[in-house]
Design brief:
79% helix; 313 residues; mainly alpha; flat
């Protein structure tokens, strides 16, 4: 080992902190995983002991974090050239790729085994499938192979409420898949809005995002189409087992705002977008974060009020 490599290694170890390793777990994404899984758990018809429920959410969160670490391990090369990801622990030189791989694999095994022991084998197996889908199907294959990467790969981020439901019941039904579909249909317009004002990142990284392969005009049309489909489904969900008057009120307001934003994006001129730094697209992206949180929050409220005869229809 040369003096330069020794110094580089020492610098990396000195710079690395708990926060750097935690960042490998993608805490922002993990927070969405935790919340939607919790809603799935609470919306299930069978209650669980608080300790079991806490353990289930904890291990689902760890599984989500493990997926994030493995994603960063595989994508380290493109993260290094993308503006919004180059400060991540691996491209920033704070954490070694091998460490990220080891951490991801260890946490994956831990989360799957412990979820199975804490709840049931079905939940553990489904968590294992989710990790596999995100890391292998999406990260290693779809992300760099097709502009439909977000559409198909979005399923991985939509599985947590299903896992939460299975952890509580040990079985499958239509209700968790309604929550799955809500996230699944939300994912494309959410990420495509981001891609509109971050297109140069995907160009430099040679990632076949829709904005790169089909252009911004086509992406705007796709956002509108998916938003219309999402709105129809979101409103229809109000009249199912996980819906109710609270959910319906929230869905009416949010989908009206979301549709308005999608129409504005569809009508936008590229020159104007460049002049105002994609103001409308950035606003739509921020709204999309609130959109999913409030929809699931409304489902949670309906579930919490049902025992008192106030939730649902």
């Amino acid at each position: 080992m040369t003096d330069a490599s020794i110094n580089a290694s020492m610098t990396r170890e000195e710079d690395a902190s708990f926060g750097d390793y935690f960042a490998l777990l993608k805490p922002r994404v993990m927070s969405l995983v935790v919340f939607t899984a919790f809603v799935g758990l609470m919306a299930a018809p069978m209650g669980v002991h608080p300790v079991v429920g806490f353990a289930a959410i904890l291990f689902i969160a760890i599984g989500g974090g493990a997926s994030g670490a493995l994603n960063m391990w595989w994508d380290a090369d493109i993260d290094q050239v993308m503006k919004r990801t180059k400060s991540r622990p691996i491209p920033a030189g704070k954490v070694d790729k091998g460490e990220a791989l080891s951490l991801g694999l260890a946490l994956s095994g831990l989360s799957v085994i412990m979820l199975a022991l804490a709840t049931n084998v079905f939940a553990g197996a489904f968590l294992a499938f989710t990790i596999f889908f995100y890391v292998v199907v999406y990260t290693m294959w779809l992300k760099r192979a097709t502009p439909q990467n977000i559409v198909i790969g979005g399923a991985a981020g939509a599985f947590p409420p299903v896992i939460g439901w299975i952890a509580a019941t040990g079985s499958m039904s239509i209700e968790p898949w309604l929550m799955f579909a809500l996230t699944f249909l939300w994912t494309p317009p959410h990420f495509w809005a981001l891609a509109l004002f971050m297109r140069n990142d995907y160009d430099m990284a040679d990632v076949p995002m829709l904005t790169v392969t089909h252009g911004r005009r086509s992406t705007r049309k796709h956002i509108l189409v998916y938003t219309v489909i999402l709105a129809i489904f979101a409103l229809a969900t109000a009249f199912t087992g996980v819906g109710g008057p609270i959910y319906l009120a929230v869905a009416l307001v949010l989908n009206a705002l979301f549709l308005k934003g999608a129409v504005q994006i569809w009508r936008r001129d590229e020159d104007i977008c460049e002049m105002d730094n994609f103001k409308v697209e950035r606003s739509f992206f921020k709204l999309s974060l609130l959109y999913l949180f409030l929809h699931f929050g409304a489902i949670l409220m309906e579930a919490l009020l049902k025992p008192y005869g106030l939730g649902g229809w």
